[in-house]
TrEMBL record:
The keyword Protease does not apply. The chain crosses the membrane at residues 785-811. It comes from Mucor velutinosus. The gene is SYR1. Residues 1-23 form the signal peptide. This is Arginyl-tRNA synthetase.
Amino acid sequence: MLHIRSAFMLLLLLLFYLTACFAAAAGVLKDKSIWDILTTDERFSVFIAHIEEQNQTSAFKDVKAGTVFAPTNKAFYVYYDELFKRKITGEQILNHIVPVAVLSNELWDGRLLRTWAFVDQVPQVIKVTETKSGIYVGTGGDQEQSWVSQADIEATNGVIHAIDKLIPLPSYIDATLQANKDTKDFYDKSVTAEINDNLKYSCGITVFAVQDDQFGDYLSPVEKRYLSQPEGKNDLARILKHQIATKIYYSDEFPEGNSTIKTVEGTEDLDVYVENNKGAPSAIQVNGVRVIRSDILAANGVVHVLEKPILPKHKSFFGSSARKSLIGMNCTRFIKLFDKHGLGAYLDDNENDVTTTILAPSNEDMLPPSSKKEIKSWLKYHLVHGRWDVNDLHDGQLLETETHQDLGEKSYQRIAVHREDLTKPIHFGRSSVIGDPVYVGDNLIIYHIAESLVLPRDPLSRLPVNLDLSTFVATLYASGQDSVIAKAHDISLFAPTNEAFSRLGLLARYLLQPEAKDKLTQVANYHAVRGVFYTSEMKEGEHREPTLSSGAEINLNKTKEGIFVRGSGAADGSDRTVIGKVIKSDMLTSNGVIHTIDRVQLPSTLEVTNKNLLSVEGTNSFLRLLERCDLAKDVLEHLDPKKPYTILAPSDRAFGKDGLSALYDNRESLMRVAKLHILPVALPLLDPGEASSPSAYGTFTSQKQDKEHRGIGYTGTDFPTLLGENNMVTISRNVAGGYYVKVKGSITQESADVINYGRSTTGGGVIEIDRVLVPKREYRHRGMAWWEIALIVLGSIVGAVFLAFSLYLGWRWYQARRDGRIQLQGQD
């Protein structure tokens, strides 16, 4: 117990002694100045050496009430290589002196301390950062700061804080922006805008840099790409300068409440709002945007980091235009071509409220036409009249462009819109739209397209692509009107299909003969209407329009059922046997438009006789027969519509197989055969779908009363002939399809099938048949037909069999009677 008490007393005496020693030492230090302490403490010997080397001894001795952040010797040894990459200057030494005494309990986080250092006449500042690991001082950036290893070494004229690293002078503001990750984007953009040197050599500025992207979502991708291009550097510089104040504003220098500060750009001030908390800024907003990191120090200014962009408030500041947007869309070649060919004004701002839609391909997708003559028209084809938003576009639209191409000065070429549904991209012509449209002001929209547009080709290049129009193409070339159609301006071409031509039957075959070239020219030009008629722009109702066929007019009629074309020959406005219907519309050409129709239209001026129809290959034998009988002039060559004749023309093969040589020796019989084939009526209404070879009907003006085109049924229709009323022919529809003709009342004579037919100007026409019809009186002089012989043979065989069977039954009866075996009535 005694030993424990003695040990305790010794411990108290030792503690008292140590306390007295420390108190004495503290008293001694406190009685010394900052310079005295630094020079007597071996930890700061290297620092003292640099002070003396830079002739800054007097500065430290002259401190009356200040704070020195003194780097220890270890600070120099640890960072020896880094320090000697650049020479320690006098200003850097002075950057460790703060002209006020600040104890550690006053070194709060974010506090700014003015030092005695100057760079280009700009006083320097250091920033305090307080963390869990201690207190740090430095520039406030991402670089390593100096840690206060021992605080509050008090002196008679202030206080010393030992630090583990030399405090460097801040870099110029351009390097400061580059070195900090939050401000690196601002630096990169300043290099693009070529203002980084201005930042470096400015004497006192404040930069408000946005964390990460300076523009965020406030600018579209197109606007951002424009600002990143050389052409956009001036606008980029203006936007960045809008975020640079003309003076240094540290966070503790903003007045409380609202204030405005001038910018380097100059046209729009920045609004600053500060809410103080116990004398220290607790919240700073610039143009309503929060400062999330303040006071990144630079030698010639300071940087504050904003939460989001502070773009200029006025829309006119950026000054968006067609050119700027096209640059941002990578369409600079498009711009250069417009400028090169004197069309640059189309891309400039206009003050006439002209609305336009631009279809612009990227640089790599530009494919100008090979012909230099077309390039202006081609460029204008990318300019659409009107401002067409996505919601305004639908499938099948034809939008008016700026080019006339070959249409004439009063008409503008169109571009077709293709849009299957809302989920698939829009196509202008063959080019699809990439991304969303770019809106420029209230009058302009730009669509980025995948490839440059192609001007509509001339009709002679467009027609052959449609194989169903090959006959019409042949018609144009055969008539020599191909060049006329190609060189015409402002025309609508109504092109009949191959099936439509086949409906003409013999008439089509005649028109394609060399001797019918003039008539074929009439027909070809009749399908070229003067004026461009797009289906969507045609008004409902019927109207007459001139054609290229010597001014002959054609009727166009738009109804709810479609668009119809009517030439000559229709019985009325609903006669679809003649009237053509547009079955495929709006195929654009360089000089107009092509519509496909299902009927060939013939002008009223076209003159076609029965002789013309018979002159085609296949019915020449019958033509010679009529000429031999002197009937050609009366029934074949006249054009009087009041006296139509329908000719039943046997084919040349029919004359060869029917064995009529006997008739040629008898002029009267020959005349009777010829007249039997001539019907003094209009061509009957035959259904093209039922004929052996489709043909046309209703081609020319219909006749009245007994001359009207009569229909044909399955029971047949009787027609008179020139041979008289007792020698009529019957035309019937075959149940199996097609039509056949026979002499009325002739039981044994075979009927003739209808092969083809065609109509003449008079309303009559020619019906080609596969057999020669013979009057009933002459028919008995002819050899029997095979089926007649077959019937006789078959009848003879049946008669012989019946006779033999009867004789057999008679013989059996005779034998039974002779033998007495005849059974009596009622006998069992």
